[in-house]
């Protein structure tokens, strides 16, 4: 019996806690635009917050093309349970807006977050204004990059960001057909970003699904985004999963149906992909915002600790100030 306990203890110690659900209970708080409430957001948002009193960093999370913010509830709850307030706006209604409109709307939501988020949080919970991160999936990943690069004309210039995470970001249908603003330059390390960046990719994203084109085509997907980042930057690719495999199970409605069938999907459990994505986000935020660097470095050193198979090998290129 002692040997079994030692083995279980070793496994627990060797597996980054970021991949597990965090210890904090959370609550989901929807907030909608209102002509009578001065604290109401400019776009519908879902706020997922710890309920335990404290001050927590804020993560802005932008959904993918034509998707709904509540499609990501499992991943968002995973992140929030580790001590983050996640704000997920709904940036489109029936039809997605133009790319620049979406980026400007994201800027408006970020401004609202800095001024009025507190009014919608549990009474004992506060947002740490010194630590704000951007994250997004698919087109929303591109939106997060565009905001970080200064393309949101609406954004209060005094607001600064501490980290950026792109989850299988996509900049268009092809190199020749990209969404506005066109941020890819096709020059290595050309992104002028002063924050650590993590790029998460999928092995099946660039592959076609029967007659449907790839959802994350070559030359406009995670690979190019990573190439154009400067250190500090990380790259983590889930080899056996597709572009939509981090979404919740059993998505409702026509949009949910399309999200489940339009992209090449993996055959492994989607729950493993959600744990992987949530874990990478958490580990990288710990690294970037809190200076807790051990977990993300462990994942790079030993990819086998990840719930999703990583191929190619994960990378973490650290600027000199992050090497300590």
TrEMBL record:
Enzyme Commission number(s) from the entry: 3.1.1.14
Source taxon at top rank: Eukaryota
Protein name as catalogued: chlorophyllase
A Gene Ontology cellular-component term: cytosol
InterPro entries listed in its UniProt record: AB_hydrolase_fold, Chlorophyllase, Chlorophyllase-like
GO biological process, one term: chlorophyll catabolic process
Species per Swiss-Prot/TrEMBL record: Brassica campestris (Field mustard)
Keyword list, A-Z: Chlorophyll catabolism, Cytoplasm, Hydrolase
Metabolic or biological pathway: Porphyrin-containing compound metabolism; chlorophyll degradation
Catalytic activity: a chlorophyll + H2O = a chlorophyllide + phytol + H(+)
The keyword Hydrolase is assigned to this record: yes
């Amino acid at each position: 019996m002692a040997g079994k306990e030692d083995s279980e203890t070793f496994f627990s110690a060797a597996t980054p806690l970021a991949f597990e659900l965090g210890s904090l209970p959370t609550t989901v708080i929807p907030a909608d635009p209102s002509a009578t409430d001065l604290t109401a957001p400019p776009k519908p948002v879902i706020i997922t917050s710890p309920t335990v009193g404290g001050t927590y960093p804020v993560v802005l999370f932008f959904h993918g093309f034509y998707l709904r913010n509540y499609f990501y509830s499992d991943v968002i709850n995973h992140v929030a349970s580790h001590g983050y307030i996640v704000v997920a706006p709904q940036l489109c209604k029936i039809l997605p807006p133009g790319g620049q409109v979406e980026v400007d709307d994201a800027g408006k939501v970020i401004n609202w977050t800095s001024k009025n988020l507190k009014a919608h949080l549990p009474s004992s919970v506060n947002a740490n204004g010194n630590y704000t991160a951007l994250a997004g999936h698919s087109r929303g990943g591109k939106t997060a990059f565009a905001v970080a690069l200064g393309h949101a004309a609406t954004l209060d210039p005094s607001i600064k960001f501490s980290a950026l995470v792109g989850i299988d970001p996509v900049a268009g249908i092809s190199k020749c057909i990209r969404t506005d603003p066109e941020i890819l330059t096709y020059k290595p390390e050309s992104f002028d970003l002063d924050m650590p960046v993590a790029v998460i990719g999928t092995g099946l994203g660039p592959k076609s699904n029967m007659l449907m084109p790839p959802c994350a085509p070559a030359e406009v997907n995670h690979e190019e985004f990573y190439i154009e980042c400067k250190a500090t930057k990380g790259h983590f690719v889930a080899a056996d999963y597709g572009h939509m495999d981090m979404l919740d199970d059993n998505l409702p409605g026509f949009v949910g149906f399309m999200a489940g069938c339009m992209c090449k999907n993996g055959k492994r459990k989607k729950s493993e992909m959600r744990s992987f994505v949530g874990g990478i986000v958490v580990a990288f935020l710990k690294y970037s915002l809190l200076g807790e660097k051990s977990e993300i470095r462990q994942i790079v050193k030993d990819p086998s600790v990840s719930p999703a198979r990583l191929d190619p090998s994960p990378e973490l290129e650290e600027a000199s100030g992050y090497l300590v």
